[in-house]
Amino acid sequence: MKDFSIAMALVDYIPVVFFGLGAAILMQCLYNKMTKASFSLFAAGSINVFMAGFLKATYKLLYAANVCDFEPLNAMFFPVQALGFLLAGSGIILMFIRKKHLPMYAVAPVLWKGTFLFVGFMVLGLGMMDAGLCYLAKKLKKPGIIVIYAVSFVCCLGMGYLSSKDFAQASMNWIAEGINVVGQGCFLWGALALRKAGLEEYQLPIK
Predict the structure, then answer these.
(1) Rounded (10°) CA dihedral 121, 126, 132, 135
(2) What count of other Cβ atoms lies within 10 Å of the Cβ of residue 10?
(3) Is residue 170 within 8 Å of residue 3, measured between CB atoms?
(4) Tell me, what's the pLDDT at 3?
(5) Which pTM value belongs to this model?
(6) Are the C-beta atoms of residues 50 and 19 closer than 8 Å to each other?
(7) What is the mean pLDDT of residues 32-42?
C-alpha cells in the first residue's frame, strides 16, 4: 500500500507547472531561431514531459482520495518523461545546426527490458537541453543563468536516483518532491532570466 496524501499529490503539481511555464517561455523566445524540425522536437518533447508529470500527479491524487489505483498512469511516467527529455534536448541541439534540410532516418525499435535505456535517454536529453541553454546564457553574457541550469540538472539527476528507491514511503515522496520543486523552479527561473536578458531579440551566430 502506498503512503500518499492529498497534500502530497497537490504539491506534486507544482514542479509540473514550473516546467510547463518554463518550456512555454523558451518556446516563445526560441521560435524564430529554430527550424520547423527543431521546434517540433522541442515542443513535442516538452509536452511529453509536462503530461508525464501531470498524469503522475493525478495518479497520486486519485490514489490518495481513494478514488482508484489506476496503475497505468503511474507506470507510463518514466518512459514518457525520458523520451520527452530526449526529444526536447534534440530540438535544442538542432537549433544550433542551421540547415534548412536535414536527413531523416527511421530505425526499428530495440527490444529492451528494464529502465536502463530510459535512464540513458533522460540523462542524454537533459544534458543536451541544459547544455544548449547554458550556451545561450554564455552568449548573452549571463553566467549566473548557467549556475541556475546546473542546479536544475543536478536536481533532475537526483530525482532519477531517488526513483530507484521505495516510493511507497511518504518520507521518500516528500524528499523527491522537494528536490523536484527546486529543480523545476530553477528551470523556470532560468527561462525567465534568459527572456529578461534578451533571448527573444538575440540572433544566433550560426549560419
Answers:
(1) -140
(2) 13
(3) yes
(4) 67
(5) 0.84
(6) yes
(7) 90
Q: How big is the CA angle at 167 (ends 166 and 168), to the nearest 5 degrees?
A: 90
Query: Which stretch of DSSP H or E encloses residue 50?
Result: helix 36-64
Write down the mean pLDDT value for the chain.
Answer: 83
CB contact at 8 A, 165 and 106: no
Instruction: Give the residue ranges of DSSP H helices in the chain.
Output: 6-11, 13-30, 36-64, 71-75, 77-95, 116-139, 143-162, 170-196
pLDDT digits 0-9 by tens, 117-158: 767 778 888 889 999 999 999 999 999 999 999 999 998 887
Cα–Cα nearest to 91, from 125, 140, 135: 125
Whether the Cβ atoms of residue 70 and residue 54 lie closer than 8 Å to each other: no
d(CA 3, CA 63): 9
The span from the CA of 60 to the CA of 36, in Å, is 36
- If residue 149 lies in a helix (H) or strand (E), which one and from where to where? helix 143-162
Nearest CA among 69, 161, 179, 47 for reference residue 115: 161
Asked if the model's pLDDT at residue 5 lies above 90, the reply is: no
